């Protein structure tokens, strides 16, 4: 997620809780646990694999810098990531 400030996932859950008026908790799970849960929910294997690859990219630690007014990332954020 992006926005005007960096929030932990627990802080995101807290903000959602405040907005919807009910408690929302963030529960950290491993990538393997996530894959198992998705499969158990009937998500097709190709989608599970794609979501896992996406999670792997996020976990590599690349942080996109997004301009707070234009909500765009500099072209350098995509260097070597496309095509």
TL;DR of this structure?
The protein has 83 residues and is mostly helical. It contains 3 helices and no strands.
Notes on the protein architecture:
The protein is mainly α. The chain is built from three helices and no strands. The protein has helices spanning 9-20, 31-40, 45-59. The protein is extended and about 35 Å long. It starts with 8 loop residues before the first helix and ends in a 24-residue tail after the last helix. The mean pLDDT is 82.
Give the beta-strand count: 0
Gyration radius, in Å? 16 Å
Low-confidence stretches: none
- The portion of residues assigned to helices is 40-55%
Structural class: mainly alpha
Reading the helices and strands in chain order gives HHH
**DSSP strand (E) fraction?**
under 5%
Q: Could you describe the largest sheet, including whether it forms a barrel? A: none
Assembly of the depicted chains:
single chain
Name the average pLDDT. 82
Number of helices: 3
């Amino acid at each position: 997620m992006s926005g005007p400030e960096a929030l932990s996932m627990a802080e995101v859950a807290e903000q959602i809780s405040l907005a919807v008026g009910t408690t929302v908790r963030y529960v950290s799970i491993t990538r393997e646990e996530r894959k198992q849960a998705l499969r158990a929910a009937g998500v097709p294997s190709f989608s599970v694999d794609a979501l896992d690859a996406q999670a792997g990219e996020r976990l590599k630690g690349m942080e996109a810098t997004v301009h707070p007014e234009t909500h765009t990332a500099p072209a350098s954020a995509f260097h070597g990531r496309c095509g």
